[in-house]
Specification:
mainly alpha
Length: 207
Amino acid sequence: MFGLITLLVFPLPTIGWFYFYLEQTFAEIFQFEQFKVYPILVGLIIGSVYAYLASFAMRSEVFDRSSINVEKIVRGMNLKLIDCIFISLCAGIGEELLFRTGIQYYLGPIITSVLFVAIHGYLNPFNWRVSLYGFIVLPLILVISYGFDELGLWFAIAVHAAYDFVLFWIISNSEPNEPVSLNASFGGLEDMEEEQPLDPPQELQDS
């Protein structure tokens, strides 16, 4: 439900303002001319790699895990693979239309990036650990913001969606105190690596 709200409601101020006041077409608002393989592929790579690095930071002893909201929320949702994909796409499209296309148009990339992190609750003057996580995420948001100006909306959506998806999937498939690993992130691989001991040959058992 929250994913649909993000997808359908968050972009409305941007779409309404740009369409009726700035007289842009829907094609211009959604930047369909920028829907190309290169910016999307670059965005997917950046978002995925950064999410994996951020997941390591979330396991650091510096952090009080109970105070990192995203981890608590994701664990409580019991997400399946399709849920991770759907919510990530909704957040990527809805939030980037609101922040990058809309707010950044007037406030610029730096203020918009700080505002984005703050609204998500990761700049907390009363909890330095949460703020530290916010400063870990902030460089990625700045990359999205400046990349939006150079590579367009769909680059920003790709980075955002890839980051959310990888982080959601890692959290959903690992225990709270479990170190981040590829096995924990992509559940099932650990079963392949844990080989059962082979029975000794029959002739050795008889001797």
